[in-house]
Design goal:
- By secondary structure, this protein is of the alpha+beta class.
- It has a single domain, classed as 3-Layer(aba) Sandwich (Glutaredoxin).
- It contains 6 helices and 10 strands.
- The strands form 4 sheets. A 4-stranded mixed beta sheet has the order 4-3-9-10. It has a two-stranded antiparallel sheet with strand order 1-2.
- Helix 4 runs parallel beside helix 6.
- The longest helix is centred in the first third of the chain and has 16 residues.
- The chain is globular.
- The N and C termini lie far apart (about 60 Å).
Length: about 160
């Protein structure tokens, strides 16, 4: 009886936490950015007016972690991203093959921990972390912005990119 009661409580909790959504993800969930994968971005190709901002990072990159903690948690940055961009996280050293924009990209053993070939493409062969890649709604490159950005610097970059498109 106790197990049945626990199951019912968990079921009610699960159902109450579910909500209907459209196919265009919101970028802020519970006060945090809701990062999509590069594969999810690929599914939105040509179906949105928003620009894609791809954060290309690695697990060992200290400045990538600082940007996550300081820049991408800034309220002004989060609000502006939510209004104007789809936010994408991409681990440049991802070993799982990626299907993106009609092509397959594999991991190759090179450098510190190897690299996914899509990182080469997105960064035009200049592997620097963190790097922010901006893509238009058809996943065509707009600009690559390498290096750590403070919230103020990030706002300048975001507004400049938005004005270009």
């Amino acid at each position: 009886m106790r197990i049945l009661f626990s199951f019912l409580i968990l079921s009610l909790f699960f159902l109450s936490s579910c909500k209907e959504t459209d196919n265009t993800p919101s970028t802020i969930v519970d006060g945090e950015l809701n990062w999509m994968t590069i594969e999810q971005a690929d599914l939105l190709k040509g179906k949105t007016e928003k620009i894609f901002m791809v954060d290309v990072y690695t697990d060992w990159c200290g400045w990538c972690k600082v940007m996550d903690k300081k820049t991408f948690t800034d309220e002004e940055v989060k609000t502006y991203l939510d209004e104007s961009f789809h936010v994408v996280k991409f681990d440049a050293e991802q070993k799982t093959p990626i299907n993106f924009d009609g092509n397959s990209y594999d991991w190759i053993p090179t450098g510190r921990k190897g690299v996914n070939k899509l990182a080469f493409k997105l960064l035009s062969g200049r592997l620097s972390y963190p790097s922010i890649v901006f893509l238009n709604s058809n996943l065509e490159p707009i600009q690559v912005v390498p290096g750590y950005k403070t919230p103020v610097q990030m706002m300048e970059v975001l507004k400049t990119i938005k004005a270009k498109v």
